[in-house]
Amino acid sequence: MKKFYLSAIAVALVAVLPINSQAETDLSRIEERLQALEKRAEQAEQRAATAERKAQELEHIMMTQNVVPQASQSALPAETVPKKTQKSAPGVQYNNDFGELKLYGDVEFNMDAASRKGQITSVRTALGKGNEPNKSDNWDINGRILIGLDGKHMKDNGNYAGFSVQPLADMTGKMNLDDAAFYFGQQNSWEAKLGRYEAYDMFSLGQDTFIQYSGNTANDLYGDGFGYIYMMKEGRGRSGDGGSVQLSKSLDDWYFEINALVEDGTSLFDGKTYHGYQLDNKKNVIYLRPVIAWQPNDFKVAVAMESQVINNAYGDTVEGKWQDMSKRNGYGMTVGWNTLAQDPDNGLQLTLSTAYLDATSEKDLSIGGFGLWRRAQLGYIFAHNDIKDFNSDKISSDPNSVLNSTPGKYDIHTIYASYELPQILDLDNYKIYLGAYYSRINTDTHNMINSHDNDRYGARARFKYFF
After folding, report:
1. Closest CA to 268 of 253, 290, 285, 255
2. Among 200-204, 275-279, 400-404, the least confident range
3. Rounded CA gap, 211 and 456, in Å?
4. Could you tell me which residues are beta bridge partners of residue 92?
5. What residues have CB less than 8 Å from 293, skipping those under 6 apart?
6. All structural domains of the chain with their residue ranges
7. Are residues 215 and 129 in contact, defined by beta-carbon separation less than 8 angstroms?
8. For residue 127, what are the contacts with CB-CB under 8 A and spacing of at least 6?
9. How does pLDDT run across 48-86, given as a tens digit for each residue?
């Protein structure tokens, strides 16, 4: 078709040009130019055909291998995204007829300096989650590498099922496990989950880097001789002695969740002692933990309770009579304002949480809050403990204990701060957190606290890398 158009143009030019030597010369030049244009048009057609063929070959390869490339992205802070989607850090994803399979990782190493490793509270403030408290080392390097594997199969009607497993390689040479869960449900409607995981966070610390109030949230949280910061974690999950089952429902701006943790209830207590009594486990406990949350926009409010519902689960024999010590009922509320999702650089996050525990011979109240702006965070936690009874035959004489373990009231004050250094070496998935804290325990009764120390402080540099 192009040749026909070019020939027609040539004939028209011949018809209008005078027939002389000069005209013949002009006609010859015109024909040469037309031939050059025709050659260029053919070359362009060949290049277009080659590009189209390569695109078809690439599409065929992608369909044959079922590979979906994933763009790298920086993970948002924990509270800016729902719990179920926090693990969407950079990774490799494969798709096939059974759904999607994603492999990813999280490196976290710490360099710590502290006044001492001795605990002031019974919620693992020692450096390194695996280290024993009461050691005198002031310096420490600790950390772990997490390898995550998530699988999910979703149908066109929104039904889905999936799993998540996250082995941890500890710096000490041990292998641990973060999550190991199976879930199924319908998208944006309901979900059921079983296994090892953490339920809804009712006492968030935000961008904390040093105050290790996390870890196995249902194990060794309470210890005689130390203060207790109750944070609605006893029935949250990730137990080393049991598993959980959860049902959740999403409805517009509302979220409903009920979690049931089944475990050996004495695993909550370090050394399996409570108020000087040696606990005897009779049967496993069941913690029921319902949560209701409302988040219409940047504002969020959630209320929850957790209750141990099995009677006579554990206790001790007192004066020849069995005494049930397994009563534990907790109540909590958290309120937050978060604009980081819309503006990660200049957004503001404010959170206020409170929790109250009514347990056998003890009542505890905790109030905490933090503010995060431009990667800088400042937080404060207040805890008030009221111990009604203690076994007088087992009053602590341990010089490492902060408390003399006698009935009475005392308060714990904790201030913590952190700062994020993003994009180290211009890498979006590598950042460093700098953190510090100071914690002190006070009481009106002088003989409740051992005189040798009643405060803790330290600093940390955390190296965080996602892959």
Report:
1. 285
2. 400-404
3. 11
4. 103
5. 200, 254, 255, 256, 257, 300, 301, 302
6. 2-64, 78-466
7. yes
8. 112, 114, 117, 137, 140, 142, 212, 458
9. 666 566 555 544 444 433 333 333 333 333 333 333 334
Order of strands, edge to edge, in the sheet holding 314-318?
Answer: 280-281, 314-318, 321-324
> What is the identity of the amino acid at 103?
L
Which residues 6+ apart lie within 8 Å of 192 measured at CB?
183, 184, 185, 245, 246, 247, 248
CA atoms within 13 A on the CB side of 177: 14
Token pair 């304002």 is found at: 337
Q: What is the 3-state secondary structure (H, E, C) of the chain?
A: CHHHHHHHHHHHHHHHCCCCHHHHHHHHHHHHHHHHHHHHHHHHHHHHHHHHHHHHHHHHHHHHHCECCCCCCCCCCHHHCCHHHCCCCCEEEEEECCEEEEEEEEEEEEEEEECCCCCCECCCCCCCCCCCCCCCCCEEEEEEEEEEEEEEEECCCCEEEEEEEEEEEECCCCEEEEEEEEEEEECCCEEEEEEECECCCCCCCCCCCCCCCCCCCCCCCECCCCECCCCCCCCCECCCCEEEEEEEEEECCEEEEEEEEEECHHHHEHHHEECCEECEECCCEEEEEEEEEECCCCEEEEEEEEEECCCCCEEEEECCEEEECCCEEEEEEEEEEECCCCCCCCCEEEEEEEEEEEECCEEEEEEEEEEEECCEEEEEEEEEEEECCCCHHHCCCCCCCCECCCCEEEEEEEEEEEEEECCHHHCCCEEEEEEEEEEEEEECCHHHECCCCCEEEEEEEEEEEEC
Tell me the C-alpha distance between 359 and 326, whole Å: 8
pTM recorded for the entire structure: 0.77
Structure token digits, residue 234: 């006893």
CATH superfamily of this structure's domain 78-466: Porin (2.40.160.10)
Model confidence over 178-191: pLDDT tens digits? 999 999 999 999 99
- Burial label, 226 (beta-carbon count in 10 A; 0-12, 13-18, 19+): buried
Q: Supply the angle between the helices 2-16 and 21-65 in degrees, to the nearest 10.
A: 170
d(CA 35, CA 355): 86
Residue 183: how many CA atoms within 13 Å on its side-chain side?
24
